[in-house]
Amino acid sequence: METTPNPSSAMPGLAPVVTAVQQGDRRWAQQPPVWRERELSLHWPLELLEAFSLRMASHGMSISRALMLSDKRYALKQLVHAQTLCDETLRLISMQLFRHFEARQAGISPLH
Predict the structure, then answer these.
(1) I need a surface site. Which of 15, 42, 52, 96 has the fewest CB within 10 A?
(2) pLDDT tens-digit series, residues 46-98
(3) Are the beta carbons of 8 and 41 closer than 8 angstroms?
(4) CA-based nearest residue to 90, from 45, 56, 61
């Protein structure tokens, strides 16, 4: 019997990320289907997403904004990848995006 590898066991630092995604997915699945269909998977502050995209492009990395908005795994992979580049500003932007992601997964409404 083949089991699916657990990313948090391979990289202990990912455990909070995996947990946040799983909890957010469960909450999303409990919403009425009408609301789920109309809601994007992720909602990033547009200015921050734009800055992230441009900064990643300056390192030769093309980011799909459509996937950043609709695919949690893709988005988190890009945020993790940004942390590995030698760019402190990019690291700060990716951390801000991740904090926004965590807050949304926890059900905390954004302050405006």
Answers:
(1) 15
(2) 899 999 999 999 999 999 988 888 888 899 999 999 999 999 999 999 999 99
(3) no
(4) 56
Q: Encoding tokens for residue 55?
A: 């900064």
pLDDT at position 40 is 52
**83-91-68 Cα angle (round to 5):** 75
Give, in degrees to the nearest 5, the angle at Cα 81 between 111 and 101.
20
**Around Cβ 17, how many Cβ atoms within 10 Å?**
20
Q: How far is CA 72 from the centre of its chain?
A: 5
Listed by start position, the domains of the chain span: 15-105
The reported pTM is: 0.59
DSSP 111: P
